[in-house]
Design goal:
It is a single chain. The chain contains nine helices and no strands. By secondary structure, it is mainly alpha-helical.
């Protein structure tokens, strides 16, 4: 399947009509991501605080649902306890975002280390046609995990902000490239073959 054929399935005309918006949003995300990388400490704190408030909101929602809809059902206490847990953990996160960021960074670090080891072992033992790329992925992931672990707990105050910034930049560039690509594609009626052909 050609790339233009797959784009037709998701509405090439709509994407082409709004290519400028994709481009603008992509540029904004790249700018914000660059700012985020320059202010990783602040972005880490804001991200953790946002996560904490999301947990509080989710807990309050679950508590409300438990009291208004489920008092006569046996699942009431499960929803009640889950809602209380969300609210308590959310307030703990909001109360000390730095400690939360350090703890989350340690979890991320352990995940990267184990994921890297697993990918390296899989690449060496299975030897699929693309095993070299899997091995490289594993080595990079393991190295990143080890580097973060060596910097921990100091890395806890900047890692989340750095990851958020990188993610914003990658998403932004994806949107920029999408906007520029669809702008230069032929119009939908020109790109589709006629029924007689």
């Amino acid at each position: 399947m050609l790339p233009t054929e797959s784009l037709h399935r998701v509405g090439l005309h709509e994407v082409q009509r709004n290519w400028g918006w994709y481009l603008a949003l992509g540029i904004v995300l790249v700018l914000f991501g660059t700012i985020a990388i320059g202010r990783v400490y602040l972005v880490t704190k804001v991200s953790v605080m946002f996560f904490g408030w999301l947990m509080i909101f989710a807990g309050v929602t679950e508590l409300s649902y438990a009291f208004w809809k489920e008092r006569g059902w046996s699942g009431f206490f499960i929803d009640l306890l889950t809602g209380i847990l969300y609210v308590v953990v959310g307030f703990m996160i909001v109360g000390d975002p730095k400690a939360t960021a350090v703890t989350l960074t340690l979890l991320i670090t352990m995940f990267l280390i184990f994921d890297g080891i697993f990918r390296i072992a899989t690449a060496i033992s299975v030897r699929n046609p693309n095993w070299g790329w899997v091995l490289l992925h594993g080595v990079i992931t393991l190295t990143l995990g080890i580097m973060l672990r060596q910097q921990w707990p100091l890395s806890g105050v900047w890692v989340i902000g750095l990851f958020v910034g990188i993610q914003m930049i990658l998403n932004g560039w994806s949107l920029v490239m999408l906007g520029l690509t669809v702008k230069n594609l032929p119009a939908e009626d020109e790109a589709l073959p006629s029924p007689s052909s």
